[in-house]
Every structure is written in C-alpha cells, then in structure tokens.
Specification:
Helix content is about 50%, strand content about 15%. By secondary structure, the chain is an alpha/beta fold. The protein has two domains: about 190 residues, D-Maltodextrin-Binding Protein, domain 2 (3-Layer(aba) Sandwich); about 90 residues, Periplasmic binding protein-like II (D-Maltodextrin-Binding Protein, domain 2), CATH 3.40.190. It has a five-stranded mixed β-sheet, with helices on both faces. Strands 3-10-4 form a three-stranded antiparallel β-sheet, sandwiched between helices. The longest helix has 29 residues. About 40% of the residues are buried.
C-alpha cells in the first residue's frame, strides 16, 4: 500500500513530466509552425567608386531583403586580399573583385563562386609616376621601387605589363602597401611608381601630382571585374542570391539614368570632388551580365600568366570558378 509521501512524490513527478512535455511541444511549435529564422546577408564594398555604395545609401538591399526575412550587414575593405580573408571567416557573402584576385583566390582555395560580371574594362588599373619622373615606359621601371597591394588587380596588371615588356617581378622592387598607405608614400616621393586603380589614378593625374606610364587601356588588356558569392551562402540561400543580383541590376540601370545624383552620393560618401566623381562615373561602364566565353577566356589568360610567373603553383581551370545559374535565376 502506497504511503502518503509516496503518493505526493509520484504526483509531483507526473506534474514535472507534463510540464517538460508541454515546454518541448511549445518549442517544437515555434520552430515548425512559425516564421523561419532571420538570415543576415553580409555585403562587402571593395574600395573605389562602386554601385554597392549607391545601393547602400538608397537602402535598396535592406528594402528587398526585409521581404525575405533577412537583414543586411555592411563591411568595407581597401582591396581584395583582406576582403577574401573576410570571406573565409564568414564576414562576407557578396562582393566584387578583379580577375587577378579570382585566380589567386581560387588558387588558395577561397570558398567563393563568380556569379556575374560587373565590368570588362578594368577599373583603370595603371602604373603612375610623378610628373617630373624620368620613367617613361614599363622598361624604365627596372630596379625601381613600386608601391602595390599584393594580390590586388593593380598587382596583376603590373605583372602583365612587366611580362609584356620581357620583364619579371624580380626586375623591380615591390613595396607592399595598401592604397591608404601607398597614397601618401607616392606623394612624398618615397616610391618611384605606384600600380593602382581609380579613383586614385584620375585623382592624382587631375591634381597634377602624377602621370600615367601605362594602363589597361593603353596596353589593350581585357580586365574583367566580377561579382562573387560565398559558396556555403549560395548553396543555402539561392533565393537570397537571386534577390541580391536583382537589386544590383537595379543599381546598374539607375546610375545610367541618374549620373548627377550618383556623383552626388559617391562624392559625399567618399569625400571627393563632385566634378571629379562625375567624370569617373561617366568613364565607367557598369554592367551586370553572365560570364561569357570571352570573359572566361580573359580570366583563363590571367591564370596562365600567373602560373608562368610563379604567382600560383598549379594550373587553374576557370570553367570551374563561375556558375551562371544564379544570374539566370535572378532574371525570372
């Protein structure tokens, strides 16, 4: 026969079990019957005058991602090398890089895929020198100190320019500097030349502080810039990837019709002269297109050159680094 104490213990145990089951059921209902967990989309601005800066100011990404229960987190990097470090540590889901960084990044097994092409003319990558410098050609760079952010599009342009003139990187003295460090060093005459991109090229030239020795245009190089996505994010959120590319297309279409306002936004955000910015915007051909055979061939050429120079150690098959299906989905 059960004692009173025994009955009380049994009753308390059953009550505790019922409470536990109830809490578990509530938790399960919250997970399966309610809204899905909110996703954070990490977008990185990779220096320069770009459409992501305009879209950020306009709030276009936030507006569209909110409809899909997603927030936006912004980051900004000086160049592609630290950007890829951010991607590896899951702080970057989408951004844009140059073809050289595509090659060096994939050679280092960075977990990204090219999802569209944002330009094919390069961002005015150039080698610049002081106006009174005796350097008149790439050949004149032999033995000279050249500031450059290693692994950046400017670095890749420099390698190509040297090779086209029968030279190697070892023929010059590379001074590893990010743009914010290289700019004052160049102006102070602490380096002989600077391998860099816009807006720095046009800013220095227009101010009378530099002249161009060679550029992607003068050398006839095709220099694709591309949009990339972090592999894990692309696989887990193809719907958000389509939204991202749709918003970027909106920015491409908008800037073509609103050059003055675009220049206003970029000049304010980058603390630059509006007329200079307007000139830069007008000289830039912003696009959002799938990877074409010609673009793929240009990136493959860069990969082959970097393999020959020893910058990468194994041949890269560029056909494996891009996927146009995300772009196609964004057009539906």
């Amino acid at each position: 026969m059960q004692t009173t104490a025994h009955r009380k213990f049994k009753k308390a145990s059953l009550l505790l079990l019922a409470l536990t089951i109830g809490l578990f059921s509530l938790s399960a209902c919250g997970k399966s019957g309610g809204s899905k967990d909110k996703t954070t989309v990490n977008i990185a601005i990779n220096g320069g005058l770009n459409l992501l800066t305009i879209a950020k100011k306009k709030g276009w990404f936030e507006e569209e991602f909110k409809k899909a229960n997603a927030d936006v987190q912004w980051n900004e990097f000086q160049s592609s090398v630290p950007l890829l470090e951010g991607l590896v540590s899951d702080r970057v889901d989408f951004s844009f890089i140059g073809d050289g960084t595509v090659v060096t990044g994939k050679a280092a097994n960075s977990p990204f895929t090219v999802i569209s092409v944002t330009g094919v003319e390069g961002n005015q990558n150039s080698v610049i020198v002081k106006p009174d410098s005796p350097i008149q050609s790439i050949a004149d760079l032999k033995g000279k100190q050249i500031a450059v952010a290693k692994g950046s599009s400017g670095h890749i342009f420099l390698i190509k320019a040297l090779q086209k003139n029968g030279m190697k990187e070892s023929d010059v003295k590379i001074v590893q500097l990010q743009p914010d460090e290289a700019n004052p060093a160049f102006q102070a005459g602490q380096v002989d030349a600077w391998a860099i991109w816009d807006p720095f090229v046009t800013t220095e030239v227009d101010a009378g502080r530099a002249r161009i020795v060679e550029s992607v245009k003068t050398m006839g190089f095709v220099a694709p810039a591309v949009m990339i996505g972090r592999d894990k994010f692309l696989k887990e959120h193809p719907d958000l990837t389509a939204i991202y590319l749709k918003v970027y297309q909106k920015a491409v279409d908008w800037v073509a019709q609103n050059v003055d306002e675009a220049a206003d936004i970029l000049a304010t955000e980058k603390k630059m002269d509006k007329e200079l910015v307007k000139k830069l915007v007008q000289n830039t051909h912003y696009i959002n297109e799938p990877v074409t055979p010609d673009t793929a061939a240009a990136i493959q050429s860069t990969a082959d050159i970097l393999l020959e120079s020893g910058t990468i150690k194994e041949k890269l098959d560029v056909s494996k680094v891009y996927d146009n299906s995300y772009f196609e989905a964004s057009k539906k």
